[in-house]
Specification:
By secondary structure, the protein is α/β, with parallel strands linked by helices. The protein is built from eight helices and 18 strands. The protein has a single domain, classed as 3-Layer(aba) Sandwich (Aminopeptidase). Helix content is 25%, strand content 21%.
């Protein structure tokens, strides 16, 4: 499929180099273990932002470059706009997928995260759960979950949804395996083997429903991982400037879950086939993140969670509601979505992308009908 290219107005991008990806770093993510479930032994490699990154810069003024209009390229799907800079596309072969398919690193175990117990979990009216790691009480947050999102997406093919990837190079197992290669980082710049391929599956379901989608395939986490969120924020701002009718922005990731040397693959069986489970992360402001409209994002998270669970029971892990920013200040419909883990296969992840894409399409239809 022909991909529409776009370019930021900077000297580096104009020169067509990868330097455009190394812009100023305002948000520096670090890996921090997050306990999942009730055992207290499993950890999820969800990056969290430092406290310093949560505050607005005091002295430096960030100048947001204006994005140039993409070239008029005829695509197979008129509802889909694919965007990637020349510098990013030039890196597709820079980090090849190199999985030796051995078990030198440890084992892979499947697990379904559903109906979890404990004081931090509560059920939503229409299905699914929330994991509340904030100052909110569960009762107050449940009441908040019942408020419909104040979003009015168009369903006439006008771009309404943005899909992008802060950690674009996150990848999966290419074949089903009982173990994993200790030397494989589960990252690659090949777009047909990383999160871009999963984003393609989500986008396909949205466009099939007549919903306009921009899929930004820009590599934000290579060659340097630190500063990924700052770089992806520039991408989001540039896309929103070009397509102001976009009201939902999804940052698609792949989670990393482990227990000792065992990698956990979150799975559900839907229609007789295994699929990766999906987790929505909706950030909460602790007073230092400049995320004043986080409740609006949470309203969307809850509607999508319940819609997906009604359509595909077992697909969703509990929503993680925690003190995270993740560029969720850029729209009132911003969510981070983790699809599977490094233990899932790409096939399982793409299947999950298909299901969550169908659920998102239904969510958009509900919002548009209001």
């Amino acid at each position: 499929m022909a991909r529409r290219r776009w370019m930021l107005k900077t000297a580096a991008a104009a020169a067509g180099t990868a330097a455009v990806l190394l812009g100023c770093m305002k948000i520096i993510p670090v890996m921090q273990a997050v306990h999942i479930g009730t055992s207290g032994t499993e950890v999820s490699g969800i990056p969290v932002e430092t406290a310093e990154s949560a505050a607005e810069p005091r002295t430096e003024v960030l100048t947001i470059p204006r994005a140039e209009a993409p070239p008029a390229v005829q695509t197979v799907d008129p509802h889909l706009i694919l965007m990637e800079s020349d510098g990013s596309a030039a890196m597709h072969n820079a980090r090849p997928y190199e999985n030796r398919h051995d078990s030198s690193g440890g084992s892979i175990a499947e697990k379904q995260y559903r109906n979890l117990t404990g004081s931090m979990f509560f059920r939503l009216d229409g299905g699914g759960q929330v994991r509340n790691s904030t100052f909110w009480t569960n009762a107050d947050l449940l009441a908040e979950s019942r408020i419909p999102p104040a979003l009015h997406p168009k369903t006439d093919g006008t771009p309404a949804v943005l899909i992008y990837h802060t950690h674009t190079t996150e990848s999966y197992q290419d074949v089903k395996s009982a173990g994993y290669d200790a030397n494989f980082s589960f990252r690659t710049t090949e777009p047909d083997k990383n999160t871009v391929a999963v984003g393609d599956a989500v986008a396909a379901e949205l466009t099939a429903a007549g919903i306009g989608v921009v899929h930004a395939c820009e590599i934000h986490d290579y060659p340097k991982w630190n500063g990924s969120y700052s770089r992806s924020a520039k991408t989001v701002r540039a896309v929103l400037e070009q397509y102001p009718d976009i009201c939902i922005a999804l940052d698609l990731h792949r989670d990393a879950i482990s227990s000792g040397t065992t990698v956990i693959a979150p799975v559900a069986e839907i229609g007789g086939r295994k699929t990766a489970q999906v987790m929505i992360i909706s950030g909460c402001d602790d007073g230092k993140m400049n995320l004043p409209n986080y409740r609006e994002n949470f309203h969307l998270a809850c509607l999508l969670q319940q819609t997906a669970e009604q359509m595909f029971p077992g697909l969703m892990r509990p929503i993680l509601f925690d003190y995270r920013k993740y560029n969720q200040d850029l729209t009132n419909g911003s969510l981070l979505i983790e699809i599977g883990s490094q233990g899932n296969t790409l096939e399982e992840a793409r299947r999950a992308g298909t299901y969550i894409g169908q659920a998102l399409a239904e969510t958009v239809r509900q919002l548009a009908a209001v």
